[in-house]
Amino acid sequence: MWKANFKILMTVVMTLGVFTVVSNIIPQVRSAVPELIVINADMTPDELAAIGENVYLGVGGCTACHGLGTRAPDLLGVAGTVCTTRDPELTCKEYLYESLVDPLAMIVEGFQPIMLDQSRTLGQPELWTLVAYLESQGGEITVTADDISGALAAAEAAEAVTVTEAAPMNPGDIDPLNLIAVNGCLACHAMDGEGGEVGPPLGDLIGQDLAFIREGIVNPNASIAEGFEAFAGTMPPIFGDMMSPVELDVLIEFLATGTVGAVSGEEESNEDGN
Amino acid sequence: MSLEGTGEGSKKMSGLKRGLALFAIGTLIAVPLLAQVAGPDYGEFGIFGMDRRDAVWMAAQLHLLFAAFVLGVPMFAVVIEAIGIFGRQERYDKLAKEFTRLLLVAYSATAIWGAILVFFLSTLYPRFWAYLTAIFAPSMWLYAGMFFLESFTLYLYYYGWDAWKKGVAKKVHWFLGIMLNVWGTIVMFIANGWLTYMMSPPADVTADTAPQTVQVWSAIANATWMPINIHRLLANVVFGGAIVGAYAAYRFLTSESDEERAHYDWMGYTGNFIAIGALIVLPFAGYWLGREIYEFSQQMGITMMGGFMSWLWIIQAFLIGILFLTGNYYLWIGMGRIPGAERFQPYIKWMLLVLVLGVIVWATPNTVIADRDEIAAMGGTHHPFLGVLGVMSAKNTAVNLMILTTFLSFLMYRRANKEPVVSWAKMGTMLQGAAFVVAALVVLFYGIYGYFVSAIIRIGFSVYQVAAVLVTILFVLGIDIAMVRGAKSRGAIRWGQMPDRSQYALLILAVTFTWLMGLMGFARSGIRQHWHVYEVIRDTSEQAFTPALGPAATMISTCVLIFFGLVGMIFWLGGLAEKSVYDDTSAAESGH
Questions:
Q1: In the CATH scheme, what is the code of domain A171-273?
Q2: Stated pTM of the model
Q3: B484: helix, coil or strand?
Q4: Which one of A19, A76, A198 makes the best mutation probe of the B interface by having the most chain B beta carbons within 10 Å?
């Protein structure tokens, strides 16, 4: 009787033990509570770099290309050193900042021009924290309170700018291939054998529902294509604001059909209503 | 022979249970009033190295496990009683009563852990608890009322068993069993309203919404309420069946007579049959719940499937793999005590191969966490070979083939000692075989075709695969029922002549089911991340982060160990107070 009870106990304990051990040896990922980023001019260089690291690993989406070895240069541990060797007319800080806001002018030899202007997705203060973080990778942080003060003032001024409504454009005058180029879509998506693999190839969208494509552009994190879950959150939800409604319509139409002018806006709104 | 425990022991126990139930209800109603008192957001807790979240987690998990048991067992107790009444087989009636006896002793444990949970919530999370009670107070009164009805119906059902055992009185007794299920289901639905509100509050509720202005019905009938209701209803049947199977295994392993072993062997088989049968339907309820979560919040859905919880599904696949393998293993061993089953033995190794391959595919991760060098070596974030297996096309194919294989095991077990005598027996068997082949081909076709179409089309293929399997199961079963009617017996099942390892398989099944419930509870609750009420009430405590799988698994294992410890004690106490209901007719009857 006691022997049977002991065996039963051991069966339960050992089964639980196996489950516990297996669950503890797989990769452990804890969901941290997002912190509110507060940036001010009184921060120390290390504090700025710490915020910059969060931007680099998180909202900046930098790791989608940097660090993989093929798409963009590795930055960790070396960015603060190599920045002084790229352009003799620029300081490290200036070089890194320019690389973020005008990346196509600073392409490193051997890599494709696929990086977007980061000022489209990040505010000026965040950009400077990113510079501070990259400087800390093998170099000395030279971002100063003046840089941050200037960035904060610029951010404040940007909020106060009054946007004037642009005149409606003629869809026939818009080249969807140009939209794809200027918005840097090929940085992550492939088309006709070119482009990245961070998101699904644009050719996969041919035949898809127009509303589905629109949502993918305007609110890219609403659904993640199967096989690309690891890159969830990489695409910034800014492209709906970066293009005019007419430009967006032309681009969606092109992606859905592979041609220009095949689908009218009326047909799309019918599909939306379904 | 008297089949029942009698007497004073039982009456004293029932008095105690009534007291505990009243205590729990009193707590539920009184504590909301206490919680209105202004004070800190969070209370302090630090016993045995546990923090406030651990305390609530443990109490909630244990309350839920016992609650699932006391809701799941009546469901099939009433079905088995009906089989006894309408099939005129008394052994089923006795089995239903024995199930209910387990239910009775588990009821007090449910009430105790419910009371502890309410105390923890009200003292450790007072402000959040006040928020919930401000919205849900009317439903809490209703909950208390239903709890009373459920309690007294249970006592009438159990203690009236022998008094109302014939004619119309027996049917009234069975009706009481149905009402017991109705009250219990309503109780669960109400509590589900509270917890699903935390996951998916109505769209018009924001952080600025005063809780007093939230309509109770709109808060309860939220986006995930009904999917959770259905999912839990089915899961409770699975869980109840598994625990009854474990009870039978415990009694089998500690029994001292062949008659007792025969009875508990049969009881274990019945519990396991119900558990596995309901398990096959459970994934469909899971799909519905998952879809509703995505529709409520894409972000929440992505967190669940593709975010930090993505590895949880690999563990789930590992557990379900164990369930499939162990469930089939139990059946295959069981065929050793059925005359005529030898003819199926050669097929078992092939079925095992399908199951093992299925588990391997299902447990293959889609993406792996890798460092820069590893990603560079793989040529991307997806492994060149494993990446192909880690997608839904392969996984859906694997799981559907595993379900078909398990059904085939059941069919072989069912047919083992029967020799059909109908003229169309050969044709019927061929039709059954053809149905299996067609279903497997449909599953494979859509699995492979899925690699050549876009994701949006591929998602729809899973419906065809599932439909093929379900239609096949119904079609084959329909033929089988008609075909074995009046079949010649190759010999009676030798109940009780099972090796001990079969009973350990039942125990492993019960532990795995229970652990899986804990894991899925963690997933459901964890996808809220740092929110008490998703995007409405933020968790500002030190425990706002969601733990990784390792610590979560340790907590789940601790809870399951405590649960089985208490259940073991209940079984032991039950054995002291009352005699088993088995009698020597069971073994003889059960040969049919």
A1: 1.10.760
A2: 0.72
A3: coil
A4: A19
